[in-house]
């Protein structure tokens, strides 16, 4: 009888312990409240994210709050954006992978990262269904894809992006994304809030710029840079020059002058990894034009023309490590107004169709 009582007591203790452990895990992800996001410029923190209200129903979300000191590149912080309409919401980019980590950026996983991310996004969106679209398939912009798989979430990516990237980066099936053609795909969120798409290659072959015309906002991810743009080959420089010119022409045709001057460009990296460095927190129409002029100036070899507005300075080290095979360490920093493109000198000469000078 004593043994039986002892066994019963042990079972009860085990069940209680299991319940408490389960309850504790469930409580690790704090409830989300957007009550602190009332007026423009209001900012709150939730878990490893900081959330800034940049428009009515429009939020900039940075994943640098839980920054790991030994992290590199994308791990230094990425900006994502949630745009809410009357009928649904669109999440632009998915930041770093805190579900399983990413060794390429020295990024380690975090407990409950998936649930924390979902709690934040759906908390901001309220009762609206959310669709997710990424500017390009780099690990710091598609990182939280794993948090949305098998959850009836619609995921979008440009058809020009590398179809094998998601598998290489996060060991995920790329078919979870629906492909679209930039320029043909728009996201109607309701209430007149429509997000259009535009292709700007260079940083990637499917780089998507998202345009919220009604609110005069542009979300280019890394396509236009975050104050500067690194391009490693002559081909990528030429693609960027061509597409950025098309984008400038598109804006001139679709936006009257007073709207162009009011455009706000919210790039992919506003923190220490980026170069926006402005107290207003965004770039503008002048930046878009200057980046376009910088790229096209390189293609035309204008840094070699006396009196040109394109300036070149050189540096000997590649800040991201060893140069590719066959490429020297000599790097060029090309500047046109506030537009800056960094590229190996060999790539610049190649883009201009010129022979490299000694």
Any overview of this molecule?
The chain is α/β, with parallel strands linked by helices and 358 residues long. It has a domain at 38-223: 4-Layer Sandwich (Metallo-beta-lactamase, Chain A), CATH 3.60.15.10. The chain has helices spanning 2-27, 113-125, 165-170, 234-254, 257-260, 285-299, 345-352, and strands spanning 43-46, 49-55, 58-62, 79-84, 89-92, 130-133, 154-158, 177-180, 186-188, 194-199, 208-212, 217-221, 229-230, 264-267, 311-315, 331-336, 339-344. The strands form 3 sheets. It has an 8-stranded mixed β-sheet, covered by helices on one side. Strands 9-10-11-12-14 form a 5-stranded mixed β-sheet, with no helix packed on it. It has a 4-stranded mixed β-sheet with strand order 13-17-16-15. Strand 10 and strand 11 (208-212) form a beta hairpin. Helix 4 (234-254) crosses helix 6 (285-299) and helix 4 (234-254) packs across helix 7.
